[in-house]
């Protein structure tokens, strides 16, 4: 399995793989390639999102476009790529070594960092804008992005004693809630009323319907931007009853909305085929993502996931805020129709697993972050990413994908089914041969005949004729017909009634064929003297060996 990019950390997990009937997979980096490209940009004044994949150097950047690009530049942790900029200092190089990746190098970007950050700086380059972070100085405060918060913010000190400036980027519903005004194409600020908010949501919806990840941007002056100590995000409440995290987040309010950027993250090659094969084999695939539900549905359709949008049957998508208000029993009932979970956090994964397991499902769950560890431990098979996964996630997982590719999970499940099937074939061959050998000795004794096989011949059969074929049956390639069979029950026995019948049929056939050969070659003198000639023994031994080899071929087919 390691040759197929799946490292199994706990050997019993191999048996469980063949019983998996639900796979809960992250979208970004597992179902998609995790290489972002900014393709759309929208701000007030644009009727529809504009295509930014082509450089429009003949059109000067308007105030809103500049505001979006500047915020995307400032709220960004990507830096110059060390592979193309040797002059970067060693400290920065160490940071970039941890944030860069093979896909970024393959994209030949001059930036290195998280894919989203790199895509935004590439967009800035395409519009001919400069990196202003050095000129702005050291950040006064930063709130890092998290899957729970879904936004990131930074504050830079004001120039010449002026107000500090806050910049944020993140999910639309989180950013727009912190805005009171919006930026017009002429650079003015106007009150952001409900009508304008609907206009923003409509533009974001259009981008999401194309399968784009939509980020929103805002900035504005903030007064008294003196954040509390950030030693612990879970510290005790202060005199005002607010924790440090809550107080610091409230600084980022009253901002001016700038615009939206839509980023494409194409599906991985072959994932759609893998999903079809899994569904044909009775395995349901569930997508779990932090993106908007519309984006997730668009990507799901491109991957060939069964998404029924018939409202009479219930929604195939559940958002994180809906999960918060559902009990595990209600969620378990909804699992039959749901194939996508959007705007989720790592805590939601644990709730999803519990709901599935309460239905009797055997669940494989993917994850890469520290917060994913509880869900990976709870799942029947925890799958961590080898490239992007944290050490904590890898330690909690049962299996590690060294290529971070969803199709590798299919390969692992195939091996899980194949190993169990091969074990049954191994047992069928060994037991049927043993039944035939014991039966031959027993029938000869009951018939009053001399034992047709001597001790050396029996040892030869058991060690040389049974051993190598049995070992080869244990490592047979997976039968393609086996992949279309539904997952077996976790409590399924190896010695099934069907296997016992196969053992009995094969053993009796070998016994009768060998016994007939032996008895038909006995003469009256042999029977009277109760002896057996070397010729009779050799014929019987040869016949048994031939039956044994045909039995091995039968078990293999």
From TrEMBL:
InterPro entries: ATPase_P-typ_cation-transptr_C, ATPase_P-typ_cyto_dom_N, ATPase_P-typ_P_site, ATPase_P-typ_TM_dom_sf, HAD-like_sf, HAD_sf, P_typ_ATPase, P_typ_ATPase_HD_dom. Its EC number is 7.2.2.10. PANTHER family: CALCIUM-TRANSPORTING ATPASE. The keyword Kinase does not apply. Residues 219-244 are annotated as: Disordered. Residues 226-235 have a biased composition (Polar residues). GO terms for molecular function: ATP binding; ATP hydrolysis activity; manganese ion transmembrane transporter activity; P-type calcium transporter activity. It is a multi-pass membrane protein. This is P-type Ca(2+) transporter. It holds the Pfam family Cation_ATPase_C. It is found in: Golgi apparatus membrane. Residues 451-557 form the Cation-transporting P-type ATPase C-terminal domain. It comes from Hortaea werneckii (Black yeast). Keywords: ATP-binding, Calcium, Golgi apparatus, Magnesium, Membrane, Nucleotide-binding, Translocase, Transmembrane, Transmembrane helix. Belongs to the cation transport ATPase (P-type) (TC 3.A.3) family. SUPFAM superfamilies: Calcium ATPase, transmembrane domain M (SSF81665), HAD-like (SSF56784), Metal cation-transporting ATPase, ATP-binding domain N (SSF81660). GO terms for cellular component: Golgi membrane.
């Amino acid at each position: 399995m390691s040759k197929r990019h799946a490292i199994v950390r706990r050997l019993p997990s191999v048996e469980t793989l063949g019983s998996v009937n639900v796979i809960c997979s992250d979208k970004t980096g597992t179902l998609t390639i995790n290489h972002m490209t900014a393709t759309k940009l929208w701000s007030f004044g644009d009727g529809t999102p504009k295509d930014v994949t082509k450089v429009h150097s003949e059109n000067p950047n308007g105030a809103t476009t500049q505001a979006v690009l500047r915020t995307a530049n400032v709220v960004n942790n990507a830096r110059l790529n060390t592979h193309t900029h040797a002059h970067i200092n060693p400290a920065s190089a160490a940071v970039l070594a941890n944030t860069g990746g093979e896909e970024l190098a393959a994209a030949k970007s001059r930036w290195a960092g998280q894919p989203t950050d790199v895509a935004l700086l590439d967009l800035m380059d395409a519009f001919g804008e400069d990196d202003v972070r050095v000129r702005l100085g050291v950040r006064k405060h930063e709130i890092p992005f998290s899957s729970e918060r879904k936004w990131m913010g930074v504050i830079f000190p004001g120039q010449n004693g002026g107000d500090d400036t806050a910049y944020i980027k993140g999910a639309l519903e989180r950013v727009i809630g912190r805005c009171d005004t919006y930026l017009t194409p002429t650079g003015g600020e106007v009150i952001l009323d409900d009508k304008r908010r609907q206009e923003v949501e409509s533009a974001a919806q259009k981008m999401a319907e194309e399968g784009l990840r939509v980020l929103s941007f805002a900035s504005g002056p903030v007064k008294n931007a003196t954040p509390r100590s950030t030693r612990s995000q879970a510290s005790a409440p202060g005199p005002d009853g607010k924790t440090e995290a809550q107080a610091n987040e409230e600084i980022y309010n009253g901002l001016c909305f700038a615009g939206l950027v839509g980023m494409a993250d194409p599906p991985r090659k072959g994932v759609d085929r893998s999903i079809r094969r899994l569904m044909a084999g009775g395995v349901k695939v569930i997508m779990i993502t932090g993106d908007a539900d519309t984006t997730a549905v668009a990507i799901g359709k491109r991957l060939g996931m069964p998404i029924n949008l018939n409202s009479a049957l219930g929604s195939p998508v559940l958002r994180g805020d809906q999960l918060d208000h559902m009990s595990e029993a209600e969620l378990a009932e909804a699992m039959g129709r749901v194939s996508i979970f959007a705007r989720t956090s790592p805590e939601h994964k644990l709730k999803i697993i519990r709901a599935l397991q309460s239905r009797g499902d055997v669940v494989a769950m993917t994850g890469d972050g520290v917060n994913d560890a509880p869900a990976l431990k709870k799942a029947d098979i925890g799958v961590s990413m080898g490239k992007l996964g944290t050490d904590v996630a890898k330690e909690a997982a049962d299996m590690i994908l060294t290529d971070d590719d969803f199709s590798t999970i299919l390969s692992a499940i195939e091996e899980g089914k194949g190993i169990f099937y091969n074990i049954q074939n191994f047992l069928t061959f060994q037991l049927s041969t043993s039944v035939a050998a014991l039966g031959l000795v027993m029938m000869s004794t009951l018939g009053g005949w001399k034992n047709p096989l001597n001790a050396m011949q029996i040892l030869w059969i058991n060690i040389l004729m049974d051993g190598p074929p049995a070992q080869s049956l244990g490592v047979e390639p997976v039968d393609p017909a086996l992949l279309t069979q539904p997952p077996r029950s976790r409590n399924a026995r190896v010695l099934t009634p069907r296997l016992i019948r196969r053992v009995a049929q094969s053993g009796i056939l070998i016994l009768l064929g060998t016994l007939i050969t032996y008895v038909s070659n006995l003469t009256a003198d042999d029977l009277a003297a109760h002896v057996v000639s070397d010729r009779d023994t050799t014929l019987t031994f040869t016949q048994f060996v031939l039956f044994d080899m045909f039995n091995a071929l039968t078990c293999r087919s």
